[in-house]
Design goal:
By secondary structure, this protein is mainly β. It contains one helix and twelve strands, in the order αββββββββββββ. The strands form three sheets. Strands 1, 4, 7, 8, 9 and 12 form a six-stranded antiparallel sheet that branches. Strands 3-10-5-6 form a four-stranded antiparallel sheet, with no helix packed on it.
């Protein structure tokens, strides 16, 4: 009986490993994100294919805008580069923070489950090291209230 339970448990664990998301976060010193200080992410793709990406923003009430514009740059293993710019809403029209919260911090994943039609889909045609860079693209140099920025990648189903 123990062998059967152990076998089922091992099968469940191994089957869950294939589609787990990859997450990386970078802390923003003093919760002030400088325009000239992009956050860089080094991602090793071992399974080429289509992935869904989310940009993760951790922020506080100190943030004084309703949204944040970010620029996402990608460099593939063969040296090709691509860029995109995104407008990420952080507060709704009444000033209520979007996303989840814990204590004084709010977490926003973009796009989220409510924006299924606007998924950020990336194709990784080859194994290798992909470099991502995210910088804020607002009209001021210093953004107060941003404590972390991150990316989340998951293989598309």
């Amino acid at each position: 009986m123990k062998l059967i339970v152990l076998s089922i448990w091992a099968a469940l664990v191994l089957s869950a490993c294939g589609k787990q998301p990859m997450e990386q976060f970078k802390s923003i010193p003093d919760r002030t994100w400088q325009f000239n200080s992009p956050e860089n992410f080094d991602v090793n793709i071992t399974s080429p294919g289509v992935y869904k990406m989310q940009i993760q923003v951790r922020y506080t009430q100190e943030y004084s805008f309703s949204n944040i514009w970010v620029a996402l740059d990608e460099k593939s293993p063969d040296g090709k580069q691509a860029s995109m710019r995104m407008n990420i809403p952080l507060f709704d029209i009444s000033g209520r923070p979007l996303g989840s919260f814990a204590g004084n911090f709010y977490d926003r994943s973009y796009p989220d489950g409510q924006m299924e039609a606007r998924q950020l889909t990336l194709n990784f045609p080859a194994k290798g090291r992909y470099l991502f860079s995210i910088r804020h693209n607002m009209r001021i140099d210093k953004l107060d209230g941003i404590s972390e920025i991150g990316i989340r990648l998951k293989e598309a189903e």
